[in-house]
Amino acid sequence: MTHATAHRVVIVGSFNVDHVWHCDSLPRAGETRTGQYRTGPGGKGFNQATACARSGAATVFVCALGDDEGGALARALATADGIDLRAETSEEPTGTAGIHVDAQGRNSIVIGPGANATLSGGFIARQAQAVTGARIMLAQLESPADSVLEAMRLARASGVRTILNPAPANAESTRELLAVADVLTPNETEFAALLARHSSERIDPDDVAGADDERLHHLCRTLLPRGTVVITLGAAGAFVSHREDKCRGDEAAHYRVPAYEAAVVDTTGAGDAFNGALATSLALSAERTFADHVRFATLYAARSTEHEGAAESMPVLATPGVVAPSAPPTPSAGAPR
Which of 68, 78, 152, 170 is the most exposed place for a label (fewest CB within 10 A)? Predict the structure, then answer.
């Protein structure tokens, strides 16, 4: 698929080969369970790049790959989806992930970073032309923090809007990195972890969705005073917090967006679907309110949960930036985390 480069999204991130076991319930410590096995592509960066490409954006994906079958798989899949792959070759093996998914679609994941941990700032700098010509830069934290910071700084210096998905929750992050994000997109666990790491505020991840809106807004402003925070809340949808004088077309500085109904099969890539779709919507339709961008991303994420897999679950849209809802927005299990 081809798209106008004026609507380009650049993603800096990870590619993993996913090894997935579906079982009745997630295994507990010391427990052995029987399940069905499959393998496929994943990694937060690649999932988000696939979501961007399939939802309609011209997509550049910057990553590090091993010289192995996993690397070859990444190149073939990127070509199939029209993704402009910029890969630094690593002596480490291509990244891997072990994923368990239970009967309710919930998951637990262990990552083997491999090549992802070797993505260098120098390689990022060599992609400057692609970055500075983009409309949106999207990054996560499965790559070295210094390399992500280099990419975000390069984008910001050129007036490119930046989105940081601070995942996974235990990943390294700095105040310096948060400061170069125009939009921050944590889930409940990541939000609580960032607050604990970078402020004196504390909140239990299980309490985020049910917290008072004014309190959530205060916590978001504490975490990212100059930018927008979107907390993805699973069945509770999403919470949006803007700086008071920069509401990005919205009437309110903070509000909630409900989830869409979905026939949930697998939630593994839902958060990545949300982030990729949000980047696409911002790149393709700058005139929309921010709330419209979040609604689009929430719906796209809900549709992704209706299919198995991570990157493979990303819906292909017939019309770029447009996904037809099958149901009105209501709280459901089919929302991004």
Answer: 170
